[in-house]
Amino acid sequence: MINEETQQLINKGEMLPLMEEFYTIQGEGFHTGKAAYFIRIGGCDVGCHWCDVKESWNADLHPPTLTDIIIDNAKKEANTVVITGGEPLMWSLDYITTKLQSNNLRTHIETSGAYPLSGIWNWICLSPKKTKLPLEGIYPEAHELKIIISNKHDFKFAEEQAAKVADTCELFLQPEWSKREKMTPSIVEYVMKNPQWKISLQTHKYLNIP
After folding, report:
1. What residues make up the domain containing 45?
2. Domain with 131 in it: what CATH number?
3. Distance (Å, rounded) from C-alpha 79 to C-alpha 35?
4. Cα–Cα distance for residue pair 3/109, rounded to 1 Å
5. Which residues are recorded as binding S-adenosyl-L-methionine (predicted)?
6. Model pTM score
7. Is 119 known to sit in a ligand binding site?
8. For the chain, which has fewer Cβ within 10 Å, the N-terminal or C-terminal residue?
């Protein structure tokens, strides 16, 4: 049971339910291949059936950690920090991103967009999910739109979502990992016919890195 003092720190973003943090190579999307420090925050109610980090869903399993400690760890390793989840926007991210940027670290986020946007960001990767759609306000802020493709109907969803983002937003289609052999040929064909889209692959899984 979280005490009142801890809850107040969580509400201010001065503590976060940290699941894991690690320095690795970005595996997906626009920044594939770049080194980054990943901060994975627990808590998510979006409920993707194919989620590969379902252990992140229950925030109670991940102890509240002082955000300053997380920031100090990141500063030792990287110049770019990716905040992910879970669904990181369930928590206030103003404090952590302000402190990271004051230490000359670039701040990136991957989010479903289902919660209000907080934080100061150099890069917002919006990955909408049908189970809990993004709030309208995040679409114009997204630098990257990444749609997971697990069946042919997801292409229609991708176009619906792309119609809501800015013209400058980078568009990516990514095969759901367990369906990659089935869906990748369809994605290749689709991108060749619709070259405004690019293909994202989970290269970290091919490389066997976090």
Report:
1. 4-207
2. 3.20.20.70
3. 8
4. 29
5. 50-52, 86, 127-129
6. 0.96
7. no
8. N
